[in-house]
Amino acid sequence: MKKIIPAYVRVPLIFFIIFGAMEYFIDSGDRPAFIKYPMVSVFLFVILFLLVAIEITISAIDNITYQLLTEEQKAKIEAENKLPLKESEWYKNLLQKLTKTEPIENEANLLLSHDYDGIKELDNNLPPWWVYLFYGCIGFAAIYLVRFEIMGGDNQEMELKKELAQAKIDVAEYMKTAPDLMDEKTVTLLTESADLAAGKEIFTTNCAACHRADAGGQIGPNLTDEHWLFGGGIKNVFHTITNGGRDGKGMIAWKATLKPKEIQKVASYVLSLKGSNPKDPKAPDGDIWVDDSAPKK
Ligand code: HEC
Question: Which CATH class is domain 193-288?
Fold first, then answer.
């Protein structure tokens, strides 16, 4: 084994396996554990030192034992070290353990007595690699049977359902803390003057060209009256601005240009203009919109 992986590969390899394991198991947030906790660095350094020390000691011991050998033994070890991996004692032993093959000379012992028109059969051992795999499968089957058929473990469908349910909860949780991701179902009317001022700015830049700076209407409809083509109220107006009006009328979907948060502000601003009676308003389009969700008097 020592021959296959030289020390200059082995030491870094073991070191990085330990290093990776520490980073994996120690929860250090967004910074690497060895920076966040100096003790980890110290520990890793000691490990590295020990690895090198062990390598040096082992090679020193090897050297000394080698010197103590007789010439004959030395020659034998030399010869063995020169052998390619596939011919080395270690590899051959491993292969023998895994396959338990009989050498071809012993074939006569394995021969079964029957003879089918000259075709004979050998009674070879089952190769241990196969036998152990088979035992493994039996063990797996037993555990599987108990876990899923007797104890009622979740099958794939159940797992999927649970994950989907959890994902829904996670998304709802995320939406709460990320107002930028609101949609027409969760949007609320803003009334703070800072928000409305921001909305006004967005309106002046993007919308005034068609709806006029006072929203009295020009190419687009008057936004200050009670008449709405697609419904009034924050949810409808948010929906119209996000997805646009009818094809070819000129009102594009603004979701590509404006963030939901910005659409919320400009929609709130538009709604704050209700009843502001600008001069020369455009004739009303659409129907008078009544808020069904408002408390009835
Ligand atoms: C290119 C011209 C144009 C621009 C720019 C424009 N609109 Fe419009 N808007 C229109 C037209 C035209 C309609 C009517 C659409 C229809 O009839 O389908 C409309 C409809 C609307 C409606 C629906 C009114 C109702 O009666 O339901 C709202 C709300 C609205 N626009 C808001 C905005 C906002 C906010 C902006 C800026 C982000 C904007 N518009 C930019 C042309 C425009």
Answer: mainly alpha
